[in-house]
C-alpha cells in the first residue's frame, strides 16, 4: 500500500475524524502549529458575540453574578480538570503561565520549610520558566539548580524545596517521566511543579493519580482557547490549606466584597486567583472547551501517537537519508504530540513550507517543529506535510 492510500485508510478508521468540523480550518493549509496556537473552534464566535452584545452590552455589571462571570475561573478550571486527571475543586483559570509558575514556585518554597534551600529546574526548560524560577529563587533566598532532565531524579535531595519540570519539552517533544520524577521528589521530601503547556489536551496527565503537588499550563495550544487565553493553576487538594500565594489579590480573599484591609485567604482553588479575571478571553476558552464533550483523552493520545508515527514513516520514505535528523524520541513513552526535525537551514525550510501551505514552527537554532493536534489533524495532512517537506529539501 502506498502512503497516500495508507493515509486514506487511517482516516477512514479514525474515530475522532468528525471533530475536524468543529474547527474553522481551510483545506488548503496543513496546520501543524496547534502546539503554539490552537485553531478556532466553531463554538467560539457566536458565544463571543453574545458575551459582548448581551452580557456586557445589555446586562453590564449584573453579568458578574447573573452571567456567572465571577465564578468563571473555578468553573472553567473544573472543565479542564478531567483532561488532566484532576478531581473538581483543584484548578483555577487565570493569568498567564508565567504568572502561575511564579505563584506555584513561591507557594511551594513557602510550604517546603526553611532548611530546604534549593529550587531545581530542568535545564532545557521553556525560557519563561527558567527566568521566573531564577527570580523566585532570588526573592526567597534559595539557590537555583539547573539539571538535565535525565539527571533530575538523582538531583533531588534533602536540600530541594521544589522542582519545576516541563512535562513535554517544547523544542524536542520529549515527554518527561511525570510519575517517576514526582515519586522521586516525594521520596526526597520535596515538592514538584509540572508545566503542562505541551501536554494538557494532548495526552493523559494523571495529576491526582500520580500525586502531583502543583501544576500550571496554558490553554491556547491543545485546548484551543485563543491567543493569550488564560492559563491554569492546579494545587492538590490536601495542599490547598497550606498554599500561601505570593500574589494574594482581592479575588483570592475569603470575602472579596467585604473589602477588609486584612487579608484572609479563600479556601480551595480560588486561593490561586489574583485580580479581576480576563472575562472575554476566559469565556472564549469556555466555549472552546465544548469540543471536548465526549472526547476521551486516551483516544486523543492514541491518535496523536499514530499521527507522529505516520509522520516519521512518511519522512523516512520521502526524504533521502541524512537530510533531516529527528530529535523527538522514537519510544512512545518518551514522546509528546510533536515531531522536531533538525536541519542547519531549518529557518529557511520552514519559510518555504509555510509558503506552500504547511504551517509548522521554526525554533532556534535549527529545529523544524511540527505539532499534531488529534482533534483536527488528519493522516492525509500528515502525508502531505512530509511530501512537501521532501520537495522543499530536494530544491536546497
Ligand atoms: C512550556 C511553556 N511554558 C510557558 C509558556 C509561556 O507561558 P505564557 O502563557 O506566560 O506566555 C510556553 C509557551 O509560550 C511554554 O511552551
Ligand atoms: N505564546 C505564544 C505567543 O504569544 C506568540 C507566539 C508563540 C507562542 C507560544 O506559545 C510558543 C510556544 N510556547 C512554544 O512552545 O514555542
From TrEMBL:
Its EC number is 3.7.1.3. One of its GO terms (biological process) is quinolinate biosynthetic process. Pathway: Cofactor biosynthesis; NAD(+) biosynthesis; quinolinate from L-kynurenine: step 2/3; Amino-acid degradation; L-kynurenine degradation; L-alanine and anthranilate from L-kynurenine: step 1/1. Belongs to the kynureninase family. The keyword Hydrolase applies. Pyridoxal 5'-phosphate binds at residues 97-98, 126-129, 195, 198, 220, 250, 276. It is an enzyme of class 3 (hydrolase). Pfam families: KYNU_C. SUPFAM superfamilies: PLP-dependent transferases (SSF53383). GO terms for cellular component: cytoplasm. Its cofactor is pyridoxal 5'-phosphate. Catalyzes the cleavage of L-kynurenine (L-Kyn) and L-3-hydroxykynurenine (L-3OHKyn) into anthranilic acid (AA) and 3-hydroxyanthranilic acid (3-OHAA), respectively. This is Kynureninase. The modification N6-(pyridoxal phosphate)lysine is found at residue 221. Keywords: Hydrolase, Pyridine nucleotide biosynthesis, Pyridoxal phosphate. HAMAP family: Kynureninase (MF_01970). GO terms for molecular function: kynureninase activity; pyridoxal phosphate binding. It comes from Planotetraspora thailandica. It catalyses: L-kynurenine + H2O = anthranilate + L-alanine + H(+); 3-hydroxy-L-kynurenine + H2O = 3-hydroxyanthranilate + L-alanine + H(+).
Amino acid at each position: 500500500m502506498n502512503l497516500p492510500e495508507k493515509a486514506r485508510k487511517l482516516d477512514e478508521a479514525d474515530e475522532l475524524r468528525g471533530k475536524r468540523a468543529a474547527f474553522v480550518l481551510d483545506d488548503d493549509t496543513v496546520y501543524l502549529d496547534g502546539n503554539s496556537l490552537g485553531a478556532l473552534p466553531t463554538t467560539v464566535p457566536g458565544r463571543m458575540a453574545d458575551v459582548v452584545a448581551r452580557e456586557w452590552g445589555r446586562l453590564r455589571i449584573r453579568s458578574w453574578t447573573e452571567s456567572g462571570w465571577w465564578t468563571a475561573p473555578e468553573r472553567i478550571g473544573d472543565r479542564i480538570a478531567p483532561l488532566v486527571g484532576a478531581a473538581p475543586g483543584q484548578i483555577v483559570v487565570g493569568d498567564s503561565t508565567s504568572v502561575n509558575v511564579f505563584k506555584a514556585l513561591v507557594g511551594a518554597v513557602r510550604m517546603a520549610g526553611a532548611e530546604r534551600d534549593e529550587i531545581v529546574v530542568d535545564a532545557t526548560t521553556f525560557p519563561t520558566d527558567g527566568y521566573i524560577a531564577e527570580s523566585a529563587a532570588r526573592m526567597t533566598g534559595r539557590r537555583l539548580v539547573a539539571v538535565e532532565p535525565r539527571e533530575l531524579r538523582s538531583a533531588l535531595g534533602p536540600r530541594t524545596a521544589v522542582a519545576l519540570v516541563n512535562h513535554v519539552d517544547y523544542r524536542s517533544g520529549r515527554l518527561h517521566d511525570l510519575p517517576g520524577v514526582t515519586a522521586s521528589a516525594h521520596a526526597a521530601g520535596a515538592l514538584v511543579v509540572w508545566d503542562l503547556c505541551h501536554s494538557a489536551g494532548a495526552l493523559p496527565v494523571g495529576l491526582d493519580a500520580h500525586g502531583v503537588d502543583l501544576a500550571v499550563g496554558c490553554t491556547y495550544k491543545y485546548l484551543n482557547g485563543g491567543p493569550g487565553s488564560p492559563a491554569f493553576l492546579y494545587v492538590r487538594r490536601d495542599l490547598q490549606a497550606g498554599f500561601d500565594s505570593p500574589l494574594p489579590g482581592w479575588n483570592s480573599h475569603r470575602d472579596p466584597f467585604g473589602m477588609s484591609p486584612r487579608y484572609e485567604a479563600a479556601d480551595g482553588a480560588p486561593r490561586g486567583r489574583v485580580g479581576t479575571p480576563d472575562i472575554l478571553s476566559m469565556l472564549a476558552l469556555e466555549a472552546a472547551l465544548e469540543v471536548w464533550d465526549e472526547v476521551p483523552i486516551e483516544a486523543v493520545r492514541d491518535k496523536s501517537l499514530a499521527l507522529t508515527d505516520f509522520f516519521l514513516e512518511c519522512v523516512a520514505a520521502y526524504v533521502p537519508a541524512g537530510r533531516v535528523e529527528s530529535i523527538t524520541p522514537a519510544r512512545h513513552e518518551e514522546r509528546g504530540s510533536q515531531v522536531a526535525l533538525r536541519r542547519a537551514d531549518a529557518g529557511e525550510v520552514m519559510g518555504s513550507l509555510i509558503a506552500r501551505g504547511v504551517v509548522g514552527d521554526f525554533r532556534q537554532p535549527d529545529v523544524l517543529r511540527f505539532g499534531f493536534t488529534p482533534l483536527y489533524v488528519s493522516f492525509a495532512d500528515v502525508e502531505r506535510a512530509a511530501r512537501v517537506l521532501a520537495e522543499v529539501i530536494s530544491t536546497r
